Structures are given as structure tokens and as C-alpha cells.
TrEMBL record:
UniProt keyword annotation of Cell membrane present: no
Gene: yjjX
Binding site for Mg(2+): Q74
Superkingdom, taxonomy of origin: Bacteria
Name of the protein in its database record: Inosine/xanthosine triphosphatase
Family matches, as InterPro entries: ITPase-like_fam (IPR029001), Non_canon_purine_NTPase (IPR002786), NTPase/PRRC1 (IPR026533), YjjX_NTPase (IPR050299)
Stated role: Phosphatase that hydrolyzes non-canonical purine nucleotides such as XTP and ITP to their respective diphosphate derivatives. Probably excludes non-canonical purines from DNA/RNA precursor pool, thus preventing their incorporation into DNA/RNA and avoiding chromosomal lesions.
Amino acid sequence: MPESHKPTLTVLVGSTNPVKIAAAKSVFSQYFVEHHIHCEGLHAPSLVPDQPLGEEETRVGAENRVRYLQAHHQADFYCAMEGGAAEFSYGPATFAFVVIANNSRTSIGRSANLPLPPVFYQALLQGEELGNVLDKAFNTVNIKQQGGAIGLLTQHLATRESTYTQALTLAMAPFNFPALYLE
């Protein structure tokens, strides 16, 4: 079907970060091939620190972004990705929580962990944001809107976008089989 004849599916992302918008557009384009995907990033406050620490704070940040979008905008789907860091029994790591919602359900997912150098995590505990720590350590500029820690620390074999894409893809399961996920 020509693109101009496809129905439009509107997806709002709770961020203006191009990496997050691209990940959302990629996932929704794969799931809704018969639709034109209008994917737009909008400012949506997380109401958590710029550098969330711990799984709870990180998840709540993503949920808050989606709730804000739902309260202030109309769309078919709303989604948010929130990157955080935590100290686990095996060492510090960074990860992301993703939230996808429509008017009838919400799904929460989480990315894999990326081990963080302890010196980076210590900087986060001192109040720095991971993107700024990386920019200093690797002499980059605004890496968080590019490959992020994931790209740098995996020698670009994985990227921030690929990690968000995987987490969003998995979080779509309740929308794919709603009868199996009755609330």
C-alpha cells in the first residue's frame, strides 16, 4: 500500500532526544506495517533527578513522562525511556526503563545492564550526569544524544538506540496479545 494511503498511527515520545524518538519510530514501524507512523518527541518532565539512581527512581521517571503526555496530548500510543544507574551485588551498571501506554493499558519494560566503570559510578553518586562523565572521559560532545555509554563501552557494537529498541520491542507484548494480559 502506498505510504500516502496508509492510516496514521500517532506515537508520542516523552523526550526530544533524537535517539529515543528514532527507537520508538523503529519499533512502531515494525509492529504496525500497515500504518504511517507519526512519531513525535515532546518535552515531558520525569520529576526525578537528571541522573536517576536505582531501579525504582528510573522506572518512576519513565512512568511520569508517559503520564504527562497522556494528560496533555492526544495520541494512539505514548512512550518514554529513562536511563539510570545502580550498584548491584556484582558492580555498578547503567540500564533503562521503558513505558508504553495507550488509552487502555500500560506496559513497563527494562533494558539489559551495561557494566559501568566504578569511577564513573562514583561520579554519578557525586551528582554528575552519565553523559557529562562520558564526554569528559572520552572527549566527546553530547554523547547522550548519540551512542551513549553503550556505544562507547561496547566499541559501538551496541548503541543506546539498539538497547531502547530491544526494550520497547519486548514491552509491546501486552499490546500484541491483550487477552493474555488481562488486568
